[in-house]
Amino acid sequence: MSIYSKKDKALTREGIIGLGESSIRKNYYPELQDKISTLEKMKTRNQALMMAIPDILLVSDSNHHFTPFATSKAEEAALVLSFLREPAIADKLKQGVDEVILNRKPEIINFTVVSSVQKRHFEARFQLTELNEVLIIIRDMTQRTVLEEKLRDMAERDSSTNLYNRRKFEDAMLAYEDMNSVSISLIVFDIDGLKNINDTIGHLEGDRVIKTVADKINENFNDAVLISRIGGNEFAVIYEGISKSVIQSKCDAFNLKLDLINQNLAYEVSVSFGISHSNGMPINGAQLYQFADHNLYNHKLLKEGSSKSTLVKTLMKALEAKDYVTEGHTDRMSELAKKLGLTFGLEQHRMDQLTLLTKFHDLGKVGIPDNILKKPGPLTPDEWEIMKTHTAIGQRIASASPELTAISDLIYKHHEKWDGTGYPLGLKGKEIPLECRILSLVDSYDAMTNDRPYRKALTIKAAMSEIKRCSGTQFDPDMVKIFCEYIESGTV
């Protein structure tokens, strides 16, 4: 017979511990009372612990029913509700719950809440319980995240200019090598003559120049992916998916801003730059930088105030002294060539190469005997063959000079003709580099319209008539048409 009667079936406190009964169960009363007391203490302790924990605690079942876990904080309850009302965050929490239930192991996700007041960063940890529920611990990571970002920023920034540093730049270029679908443009800048400013006016003023240039670069190229200071007086800018013409226009705008700065200075701040593009090809960061740096070097060669331009000036004086070029000839050609180069959309580095080509296309004549070079009458066939070697001689000299390597191939091809009757390769039409086609036209025009030892200058009308006659044979016909319009309208 059961010791329980029907009236004892109700599970009451008294029924459990046997109060008022003559049953043997009375012997358990002290132990049960202790257990209850212990459980109540644990409950109180746990509630106090949970109240002390700054984290948000949620419980979810497999159906994504989220319940705050023992919270009495109004602020915390409101934050929980805001999470669940935000679809993107709610979806992340649901995804975390599903992952834990499926994989039976803890998960961690991070999310950000942006309000009109601030941006807050959170970390959510998911832990499966024995009841097949998921305990979610959401911790505010804003302070830690902001500190980490600040430390990372300090490690990646140049303290003087607040631009990114070389390490950041190199990491970015390295990362691009793993991206096949990205086309980037790189612009490299160098402040000309900064050493002279440091030596004469002082390093403090030199630092001001660096900061001023950095600010102008940052202002003018503020839509770039990355702007870095990569050396003492060198900067780099990276763009993604921008056309060459837009890049060039931005560089032109930057030059105009420098001109405005120079109006208020006792000295001139000059900045050279070089551009290179990946053109949709797989990116080789080192090679792309090398191209940009080489184009920068060519740009620097043509700067009047640049120490690099000393080589150009020295060689030009030597050529003029030997009568291999007529004084003023290259300057006049450069102006005409630049006009045509801009019309045909040449980028800055190709414009620089074109300018160098106008100065040094006849560099190889230093290897031609004077009795042939200065002969007043027609050359014999043998003498003409020797004269034609000046393109190859010029190519070899330019190739051996780091400053002129970029134009060595153009020097070699500058006597090619549109109809293929030129030398040394017999190139035809657009096989001839555009720079060489421009040079051929402006060189002939300048030669005809200026006095030479063996003849007087032709009139502009006579020179234009001769150029039109040679259109399609010696000269690019499209270029002749544009050039004639310039001359006849008086714009050059």
TrEMBL record:
InterPro entries tied to this protein: Cyclic_di-GMP/3'3'-cGAMP_PDE, GGDEF_dom, HD/PDEase_dom, HD_GYP_dom, Nucleotide_cyclase, Rev_trsase/Diguanyl_cyclase
For whether the record's keyword set contains Transferase, the answer is yes
Statement: the UniProt record of this protein carries the keyword Nucleotidyltransferase? yes
- Which top class of enzyme applies to this chain? transferase
GO molecular-function terms, A-Z: diguanylate cyclase activity
UniProt keyword list: Nucleotidyltransferase, Transferase
> What are the GGDEF domain coordinates in residue numbering?
182-314
The EC designation for this entry is 2.7.7.65
Q: Which Pfam families does this entry report, sorted A to Z?
A: GGDEF, HD_5
Q: Where is the HD-GYP domain?
A: 304-492
NCBIfam families linked to this entry: GGDEF (TIGR00254)
Instruction: Report what the protein is called.
Output: Diguanylate cyclase
Q: Which organism is it from?
A: Fusibacter bizertensis
